[in-house]
Amino acid sequence: MKTFYSPVHLAHAPAQEFEMGRMGPAVEVPERVERVRAEVEARKLGPILPPAEFPDDAILRIHDAKFVSFLTTAHADWRARYPKSTVDAIPSVWPARGLRISHADIESRLGAYAFDTATPITRGTWEATRTGANIVLSAAQCIHEGERAAFALTRPPGHHASAEMFGGYCYLNNVAIAAQWFVDRGLRPAVLDVDYHHGNGTQAIFYARGDVLFVSLHADPSFAYPHFLGFADEPGENAGEGFNLNLPLPRGTAWPAYAEALAKAITRLRDFAPDVLLVSLGLDTFEDDPICRFRIRREDYLRLGETLARLGTPTLFAFEGGYNLDALAEITANVLEGFASG
Predict the structure, then answer these.
(1) Residues with catalytic annotation?
(2) Residue 16's pLDDT is what?
(3) Eight-class DSSP state of 240
(4) How confident is the model at residue 301, as a pLDDT?
(5) What is the residue range of 201's domain?
(6) Is 70 domain-assigned?
(7) How confident is the model at residue 146, as a pLDDT?
(8) Could you tell me the CA-to-CA distances from 136 to 51, 151, 164, 230, 306 in Å, in that order?
(9) Predicted local confidence at residue 325, as pLDDT
């Protein structure tokens, strides 16, 4: 399996985040990807390749042009407004009920486009984010040319970003960009999101469409981020009705219950019969993840990969969450190895 990777992500290194009632060190850090890259090399899972360059057109098929423009200049605008600040660009005010949306200054633009305080914009954020789109599109092109599978080792992650909103450590939605790229080439893609957190951005992008199936296994948003989307009673709307399947799971979910939900997801995927499967590969379901509450064990990720392989569908894995640095590389590689052997 080919892995696509770029060191450009290293410049996106947020120092702090405010989440779950605390201001503390960021957990979405460059070391996440570097450890995974080293493990892929050590286990000889396949070549690690640099991404090709793709035009902005593929991004603009998913994301609003003004939103993309904001991301390209946000850090510079923040520094111009607060030249002495040592803090990354983080929103502090939002256009909530009864207020008007404004894009007049960097404070209002941050509030208009962000939905949390955990996703700072740093000096290297845009370059890493834009390169991530090239990485996932390189993996898509690889599969389109006949490969059985490819791994987009992207950072920052993407599944929380919607057409004109960032949050959840995500700025552009990598999986959605790749899915649209396949649609534009006449294929029917399906997205399976296995991250602990619901992929609210991916759901929002395709919610009214029937040409892309979205299936997600995740922690119930009644207690877990992103809190406001990802419930079981969200089947899609208009042309997309029946093409969105959420399988929210309770705290403490271990492999037996997870495997049962995964079987439901597989059944829906088989019914849809996609030409290509895109997996939002979040590894924060691990039992010792610092910010999540499932109990999936190291060996279970081999089973996950084997299960996905049995679909017999060309598969693109896109790296999403996972924050236990001691286990992340191993469990990511376990999924890929399980798939390769399945």
Answers:
(1) 160
(2) 85
(3) G
(4) 98
(5) 2-17+27-51+123-341
(6) no
(7) 98
(8) 8, 8, 19, 24, 22
(9) 98
Burial 84-109 (b: 16+ CB within 10 A, else e): eeeebbbbeeeeeeeeeeeeeebbbb
Give the amino acid at 316.
L
- CA Rg value for the chain: 19
Indicate the pTM of the whole model.
0.98
Asked if the peptide bond before residue 156 counts as cis, ω within 30 degrees of 0, the response is yes
Orientation angle between helical segments 300-309 and 328-341, nearest 10 degrees? 30
> Does residue 102 fall inside a structural domain?
no
Side chain identity at 228, as an amino acid letter? F
Inside any domain, residue 60: no
Domain count, the chain: 1
pLDDT value at residue 19: 73
Helical ranges in the chain per DSSP H: 31-42, 57-60, 65-81, 106-113, 125-144, 174-183, 200-206, 255-272, 300-309, 328-341
CATH of residue 211's domain is 3.40.800.20
Q: 149-152 and 2-4: which strand pairing? A: parallel
How far is Cα 228 from Cα 118, in angstroms, rounded to an integer?
Answer: 16
SS3 41: helix
Mean pLDDT by 10 residues, the chain (342 residues): 98 86 86 98 98 98 98 97 91 94 96 96 97 99 98 98 98 99 98 98 99 98 98 98 98 98 98 98 98 97 98 98 98 98 88
- Helices 31-42 and 328-341 pack at an angle, to 10 degrees, of 40
Q: Please give the DSSP secondary-structure letter assigned to residue 187.
A: -
Structure confidence at residue 196 (pLDDT): 98
> Which pLDDT score is estimated for 290?
95
Alpha-carbon distance of 91 to 184, in angstroms, equals 35
137-171: buried (b, 16+ CB within 10 Å) or exposed (e) per residue?
bbbbbbbbeebebbbbbbbbbbbbbbeebbbbbbb
Strand duo 2-4 + 22-25: pairing: unpaired
Please report the sign of the dihedral spanned by the C-alpha atoms of residue 75, residue 77, residue 82, residue 84.
positive
Question: Considering the domain boundaries, does residue 297 fall inside one?
Answer: yes
| Cβ neighbours of residue 263 closer than 8 Å, sequence gap 6 or more | none
Q: Residue type for 236, please?
A: G
